[in-house]
Specification:
Blueprint: E1 7-14, E2 21-29, E3 34-39, E4 44-50, E5 66-69, E6 72-79, H1 82-88, E7 93-99, H2 107-116, E8 120-127, H3 131-137, H4 147-154, E9 159-166, H5 169-177, H6 182-188, H7 193-197, E10 206-208, H8 212-223, E11 239-243, H9 245-249, H10 253-261, E12 265-272, H11 276-282, H12 292-302, E13 307-313, H13 321-328, H14 333-339, H15 344-348, E14 357-359, H16 366-379
Antiparallel strand pairs: 1-2, 1-6, 2-3, 3-4, 5-6, 7-9, 7-10, 8-9, 11-13, 11-14, 12-13
Helix pairs in contact: 2-10, 3-4
């Protein structure tokens, strides 16, 4: 078989029952959309060449990505041959995209612009940096006249850090941002993010890495430390939204966040890829309410790709559980389109399982559900 006929990757799968990590060679055949898997340890076929029931998206085939094949979440850890490396690395450059405090209220709109421009958002975290953390991130500028002003500003409110993936991602993101000075951006690049959301040269909406080495270092700062920097969930008087994988994979997460930010405060958010054990544990309360078929379908959907967990707070300090549940609408989007046509599920849901968003049902469960994602999953290293 010629190398040109297929792409080859090294993948890992963690068996949630035994805790054993399995390594597979994963082959993807672009022409037929078929896949094939070989168990590396036992040197035998695990999955013979077949087209999965749900096609693997070729744009997700890069190192660091997670793909789902027959309910197994495979993390791509390396390229398996030089042909695949040479063909795919150029298509999957990574950069840090960061929404700064002055533009955080426009996070949904900026995230939507990112998706519309062809980026994959592989990681996402909302943070609030301490002064010391901001100084560490901008250590290269230490001693410069603007250093204190910059670090005061960057620790003044919430930010959103993202790992963006695209061909030529560094240059593509900086082009989408526009000139550093927001006033210059409005003159020279009126469609850029800084033209729309920036104020001046310092309050300029977003940050972007300027080179591959810098991108790797900056991504490591936000996504490679344990415990992670900038933990900012409130942990009380909040509720939880989960933007489901079908919307994340369709690039609609920004639209949903924008709808949420029109009414509520986003106090924390993070992208997660859940396994079946974790998803079933999170949905435990529904086991006695839904049929086994519906419950398993909900678990399958929540593990079919990345989701975005969002801690939601009321702007006036009230408990947001009931009012946010009203914004989400009925669980069945078809019913929502009749009774609450402007609700999130009516606007973004497809059916009762792929209904766009999960929301907390009971007032007492709001902080508990939020803490499951922002405290428990963090502590066990599942984020």
């Amino acid at each position: 078989m010629s190398a040109e006929a297929r792409l080859a990757f090294v993948t890992e799968w963690l068996d949630p029952s035994s805790g054993v990590k399995w390594t597979y060679q994963f082959f993807y055949y672009p022409a037929s959309k078929e896949v094939e898997m070989v168990d590396v340890k036992n040197r035998r076929h695990f999955l013979k060449k077949v087209r999965p029931t749900e096609d693997v998206k070729p744009e997700l085939l890069y190192v660091g990505s997670t793909i789902t094949v027959y309910s197994r979440q495979l993390k791509i850890v390396d390229y398996a041959d030089d042909y695949t490396r040479s063909r795919m690395e150029v298509k999957s450059e990574k950069t840090l995209g960061m929404v700064k405090p002055d533009a955080f209220k426009h996070l949904g709109k900026i995230l939507n612009a990112i998706y519309q421009s062809g980026f994959i958002v592989n990681k996402l975290r909302v943070c609030k940096l301490s002064k010391q953390e901001a100084q560490a991130f901008y250590a290269v500028h230490q001693g410069k006249p603007f250093y204190d002003t910059l670090t005061d500003y960057m620790s003044s409110g919430r930010i959103c850090a993202m790992e963006l993936v695209a061909p030529g991602a560094i240059g593509k993101w900086r082009s989408l941002l526009g000139p550093t000075d927001s006033d210059q951006a409005r003159r020279e690049a009126p469609d850029s993010i800084r033209a729309h959301f920036g104020t001046n040269k310092t309050y300029n909406a977003c940050h972007g890495s300027d080179a591959p080495d810098t991108a790797a270092q900056e991504l490591g700062f936000f996504f490679g430390q344990s415990p992670p920097v900038g933990k900012c969930d409130l942990g009380r008087n909040t509720t939880l939204a989960v933007i489901k994988p079908h919307l994340v994979l369709d690039g609609a997460a920004g639209l949903v966040l924008d709808c949420i930010q029109e009414v509520f405060e986003v106090s924390a958010a993070q992208m997660f890829t859940l396994d079946k054990t974790t998803a079933a544990e999170f949905y435990e309360v529904y086991k006695g309410v839904l049929s086994p078929g519906e419950f398993n379908a909900m678990v399958d959907e929540l593990t079919s790709g990345p989701c975005v967990a969002v801690e939601v707070a009321d702007r006036d300090g009230a408990n947001p559980v009931e009012s946010f549940r009203e914004l989400c609408g009925p669980m069945d989007p078809e019913l929502g389109r009749v009774l609450r046509p402007k609700s999130l599920r009516a606007l973004f849901g497809l059916n009762k399982i792929r209904n766009g968003v999960h929301c907390t049902d009971l007032v007492e469960d709001g902080p508990l559900e939020a803490s499951y994602f922002f405290t428990i999953l963090q502590s066990v290293g599942s984020a």
